[in-house]
């Protein structure tokens, strides 16, 4: 009898353990799917006249100094279309490899003298087989030796948290762990240094914080593409 | 004619080896006012007119090495004058160009050689013919705002027909001309969109002045023929002269590929026997680059 009385008890304890284990397992499985404890930065970049600035790179780094882990850098593309670099500004994380496909029906000769990456892709059509590795943070100015007006920029960021503003001068950086950060802005025509734009920013664990930056812009005196009449002769 | 045929043959050969070329390089519309079309000295002979010109050019470019390129450019231009219909013309030309860049980047010096042959078709048969030109140009972008250039040019013009002589011992092919010129120029961008261009050209060679009978010009001329384009009893006189041309222009970029420009040109010619004329040219130009 006792044995009989005990016998049903044992399975009951086992079922409870199994139920708790199952719940724990479900909880563990459910954890990654739960809303992340992360905040967003809604950044706006304007010039001194109040006009939105497109193609500005907004970078945030934790105030502690460590850039933080992000997705591993992959392969990006800097295209050449209608004798222009597309995009005009390409922000990438240090360690990214960049392909330079040529989608024009003429050959281009891409080069850069920039300390962050000095390289040259002599005359080519199509897509070069080997991408170029950008492993040093900084700004890389691109040119084409056949078409002097072609200018492009690759911004190599030490931080995984960066993005480029659109035509409305706005960009959102999402999924940032809550905490204190420093926000910086860079633009091809930025007046002064990128460091001068640095501003502290507290990112909440959930929700978003707004960050507005005003920058000065220098004139863009790149080589002119439009034809000019009256070149000598009589 | 021979040079033109050779250029045409070369064009054919090059075109068969290179298929990737834009059909057009540029397209332009220009209004030009020349206050002394006749290149005349006396007020009674000076005639000015407004002209509308439309032009386009295009052709393949062959990038030989990273620094050297060869281009073959066809040009087509039509000009319509407001009053002097005889000056209306359609020109079609072919130019072979070689360009070398001495290094990498927009600030390295560049050198260009161009040879061209242009067919000239006017409403007045006297002016029909061929124009052959050879030019060498060196240029350099000095700073992001300033670019400099210098060139030398040689021209020869051959007319199709030789009219009957007016004076037995003076030839009548007034539009058989040759000249040499040298020039310098500078572009200054005072704003990212605005470019100011300055130019100065020395020109030594034949000019054609159309006037009524004129003894000093007759004595200085090397060819004479009736030129009814500017009225009855007017004659075209060919004479060797020294000409200086000063030009200034301002060009505004419209988008990335087009420009609108205003230009002014002052010409001053001097020939033997104290003959001198001056003229002013005003231009308004729209250009689109493909």
TrEMBL record, chain A:
Q: Which UniProt keywords apply?
A: Signal
Determine if Signal is one of this entry's keywords: yes
Record bears the keyword Signal: yes
Coiled coil stretches, renumbered = none
Residues making up the signal peptide according to the UniProt record: 1-38
Protein name as annotated: Methylamine utilization protein
Query: Which organism is the protein's source?
Result: Aromatoleum toluolicum
From TrEMBL, chain B:
Under InterPro entries, the record lists:
Autotransporte_beta_dom_sf
| Annotated organism of origin | Aromatoleum toluolicum
Would you say which domain of life the source belongs to? Bacteria
SUPFAM superfamilies, alphabetized:
Autotransporter
User: What keywords are annotated for this sequence in UniProt?
Assistant: Signal
Protein name, UniProt field: DUF2860 domain-containing protein
So which residues are the signal peptide here? 1-21
